[in-house]
Hints:
Layout: H1 2-18, H2 21-46, H3 53-69
Amino acid sequence: MRWAALAAVAVLLVLPAGLSSYATTLFVLIFFYAFLGQAWNIVSGYAGQLSIGHAAFLGVGGYTAEILARDPSAR
């Protein structure tokens, strides 16, 4: 099982080098939303708690990414 996990990590590290920018972005979004869905499943499904903190972290991360992606000379 450990070797399979290491092989999966190795494939995920090499994968962006052979893919287009669109495919890489698509894979990032797929894994991001899968991770977010698992986090909500754990908090609200298993624990039965309402958590709005996940949405706050998502918003702060998106806003930060947008600021960092801006052209610095456009300010």
